[in-house]
Amino acid sequence: MSPGTTATAEDLRIAGLVPLSSVDRPGHLSATVFCQGCPWRCGYCHNPSILDPLAPGAVPFAALAALLERRRGLLDTVVFSGGEATLQHALIPAARAVREAGFEVGLHTGGAFPGRLRALLEEGLLDWVGLDVKASRAGYAALVGRPGAAPRAERSLRLLRGSGVEHELRMTVTPGLLGQVPAVLAEVAATGGDHLVLQRARSTGAAAGFAATLGEERDWPGRFEQALGAARARGQELGVEVFSRAA
Ligand code: SF4
Fold it and tell me: Could you tell me the residue ranges of all domains in the chain?
């Protein structure tokens, strides 16, 4: 898209398209769109090959439109994932196009672009959001590799909490992030959040360095389960219900 022009759905740079998923919006059948680019660099990222924010897309929007035409009545949602889907201006017209085609819109985001999230929410374009709470406020910059990430993520969390849109708050927990879980629970509670899904980091699909480090951790599943028990107890005190799954 040239500067000064208005983005269209066709401008969305799509790195990949999964035609059917039952997990990307829990309880729904979705098509999942992996949007190109992310400003952050979490060590555990499962999509390190699509983080370049300037790289072109690999799948035209027309392929998504054709899929939706074929799957009418079989799918209910299109989940925009990434990468960081809110990086791209074209997400807004793409979400409009999905709605106009008769499907619901889901979004996976880390909250890096609260202005774009606000625009989507204000236009009523989102039916469900999975928001990754990456770390405690103090731990954000170190995890995502960008200063200034924590206030952006917090603005997004507050916008989402205030929107009334159905959502899931989740945190991917690595051995290095275990100690931040109590602070994250307190920060979620402070925004009025009532739940947090703790996802145990796994090595499959992650960058080789992270996968190797995780593989060397002694009894990582056992340590995660132990921390989960403590988080559930702390969550009960704070009014935050804690769930778990493998990331
Ligand atoms: S925010 Fe998501 S897509 Fe971006 S680096 Fe982190 S895990 Fe990967």
Answer: 9-246
Please tell me if the CB atom of residue 83 comes closer than 6 angstroms to any atom of ligand 1: yes
pLDDT tens for residues 110-136?
A: 999 999 999 999 999 999 999 999 999
For residue 59, the cross-strand partners are: 14
User: Which residue has the least CA distance to atom 6 on ligand 1?
Assistant: 42
- Substitution site in 41, 42, 51, 173 for ligand 1 pocket (most atoms within 8 Å of beta carbon): 42
User: How remote is the C-alpha of 16 from its chain's centroid?
Assistant: 16
Report the alpha-carbon distance of residue 84 to residue 153 in Å, rounded: 12
pLDDT digits (tens, 9 = 90+) for 27-57: 999 999 999 999 999 999 999 999 999 999 9
Pocket test of ligand 1: the residue of 45, 117, 210 to mutate, having most ligand atoms within 8 Å of its CB, is 45
- Whole-structure pTM value: 0.96
**Which sign, positive or negative, has the C-alpha torsion 192, 196, 201, 205?**
negative
Topology at the third CATH level for domain 9-246: TIM Barrel (3.20.20)
